[in-house]
Amino acid sequence: MTTDAEIRAVISPGRNRSGDEDDDGGNHVAVAKKKILFSPAITTREDPVAALGKLRHEFGEHGGVNMSIEASATFTVMEPETMPRLFAGELGPDRDFFIYSRHFNPTVLNLSRKMAALEGTEAAYCTASGMSAISSVLLQLVGCGGHVVAPHTLYGGTHALLSHFLPRACGITTSFVDLTDTAAVREAIVEGRTKVLYFETVSNPTLTVADVPELCMLAHEKGVVVVADNTFAPMVLSPARLGADVVIHSISKYISGGADIIAGAVCGPASLVNSMMDAHQGTLMLLGPTMNAKIAFELSERIPHLGLRMKEHCQRALEFAKRMKKLGLKVIYPGLEDHPQHGLMKSIANPEYGFGGILCLDMETEKLANRLMYHLQNGTQFGLMAVSLGYYETLLSCSGSSTSSEMSNEEKARAGISPGLLRMSVGYTGTLDQRWAQFEKALGRLHDESFRFHKN
To answer: Which sequence positions carry the modification called N6-(pyridoxal phosphate)lysine (predicted)?
Structure first.
């Protein structure tokens, strides 16, 4: 009769401590079952939840339904001869051998497998922050003196990295373009010098939707690698399944969902992950943006209900956007038919997950945006004035003076960021009607305030 321990050993293979056997009993480094390489071929549109459902389940050390946390910085070997083989690369995580947690950690590796499955890539590596994921990928792919093409509209930190830090530190330059103008994108690519086309699938904060298939086709024709930041649209969009080579995430946002963790991820081909972990030239290995195993465990427990959370974020955002538009407010949301990329979003989004959980109100002036946020938080408890997104409570920020503050006024104008652009990451606590009543009450107070000001 087969014992529970023997069954668990088959599903979650144990470690061969001596390194003498060839049985590898598991997946590649952070490899999901689906294999995607650097290629312009557009892959099948598999539902992210279905892809996650195919992963093997990691049991705990004593048969717990949750995996154990491997909170070790360093790992033992049973024979002294095994150590040099580990450092020579003969043995590694693909055969359940670990050296040091800056290299690979079993708990972080499990989260990486989930991220690879979520995005439909061959491999993934989880990092200490979203910015560390972005900077590590760009440094690895572009190199000293290389060239990047990117849109005018980007998260302020990414824009600063591309426009200030990388040119100064290593001579990497960036041409910023209007991403919706494919002719401009094509013209900006310098054959032989441009290494990466970088963009956000849904831009921060203007909510411009990238035509991922078209941009990938254009870039691959020129031999350029496509790196897509999908932080705003996990589950909603799957850029690798649409042709992107590398997908970046700030896991701190929707994937975490609790506004309590800083983390990032690089999802792409195993060849890229392996090169980034190279002991001599790998950016992840040598710069060391290492994720803590306890953080990886926390995040692994949240991914299974990411799809449910995203559906609720998106449903609330769409309903609020429709109601705000009826009030005559200037609303920006891809789910509205008057959004410039509404049709595109419908055509490339994964079915049933909606159009994203973020909407913007253009209040035209920073003063008006600030006053509305004040009433929404302090007057009616609709949401919280805070940066970031993906939290279960609604978060409010005026982008021009916060998350896009690294950009000059000219750069913000070019990117379409109005001084009064209020970014709203829509949460799902309370009932929808309860939250809408709070919004209307705050808006009424703003109108009363404006009336008193003009009267006096």
So the answer is: 253
**Amino acid identity, residue 27?**
N
Farthest CA pair distance, the chain? 88
Residues sharing a CB contact under 8 Å with residue 55, sequence separation 6 or more, in sequence order: 32, 33, 113, 114, 117
Amino acid letter for position 284:
L
12, 140, 292, 301 from 65: Cα distances, Å = 12, 38, 21, 11
Measure the CA–CA gap between 145 and 172, rounded to whole angstroms: 5
CA distance 231 to 208: 14
- Report d(CA 24, CA 122) in Å as an integer: 18
Q: Which two tokens stand for residue 365?
A: 């002036």
Percent of the chain with pLDDT over 90: 70
At 408, is the pLDDT very low, low, confident or very high (cuts 50, 70, 90)? confident
Report the C-alpha gap between 119 and 117 in whole angstroms.
5
CATH 3.40.640.10 in the chain, residue ranges = 4-304
The torsion angle over the Cα atoms of residues 122, 127, 132 and 133, rounded to 10 degrees, is 10
Question: May I ask the CATH architecture of the domain 4-304?
Answer: 3-Layer(aba) Sandwich (3.40)
pLDDT digits (tens, 9 = 90+) for 69-86: 889 998 888 899 988 998
Cα–Cα distance for residue pair 48/41, rounded to 1 Å: 19
Tell me the fold of 306-455: Aspartate Aminotransferase, domain 1 (3.90.1150)
Mean pLDDT of 177-187: 96
R_g (Cα) of the chain, nearest Å: 23
Q: How far apart are CA 350 and CA 365, in angstroms?
A: 35
Q: How far apart are CA 303 and CA 301, in angstroms?
A: 6
Q: Residue 402: exposed, middle, or buried by beta-carbon count in 10 A (0-12, 13-18, 19+)? A: middle
The pair of structure tokens assigned to 12 is: 């979650």
- Tokens found for residue 379: 């007057």
